[in-house]
Write a structure and sequence with these properties.
With 112 residues, this protein is an alpha+beta fold. It has one domain (2-33, 59-111): 2-Layer Sandwich (Alpha-Beta Plaits). The chain has two helices and six strands. It has a four-stranded antiparallel sheet with strand order 2-5-1-6, covered by helices on one side. It is elongated and about 60 Å long. 13% of the residues are buried.
Length: 112
């Protein structure tokens, strides 16, 4: 089992969710986060004053999937979250040692 964590632009969430659903991916967790990468934020003008916005709003999507589906999930997220502009995000893959469904007590792949 793997945990796919993707950091994406907020306006891409619906596209990514719909594409994952079409591929049979059930369940994901979304968290509003702020951060910066190479773009290092930007400046905005408000009432004549210039402000530096260091941390940009992003969404973190976490999906627990069977190991054999990881490449498919990566491809779907990459294709649908891509705008071709700086700040499109990142995808991280980590191992999951164990998963337990609290309601039924199912473990491993059955808990996904």
């Amino acid at each position: 089992m793997k945990l796919v964590t993707a950091i994406i632009k907020p306006f891409k969430l619906d596209d990514v969710r719909e594409a994952l659903t079409e591929h049979g991916i059930q369940g994901l967790t979304v968290t509003e986060v702020k951060g910066f990468g190479r773009q290092k934020g930007h400046t905005e003008l408000y009432r004549g004053a210039e402000y530096v916005i260091d941390f940009l709003p992003k969404l973190k999507i976490e999906i627990a999937v069977a190991s054999e589906r990881v490449d498919e999930v990566i491809e779907v997220i990459t294709r649908t979250a891509n705008t071709g502009k700086i700040g499109d995000g990142k995808i991280f893959i980590t191992n999951i040692e164990q998963a337990i469904r609290i309601r039924t007590g199912e473990t491993g792949q059955d808990a996904l």
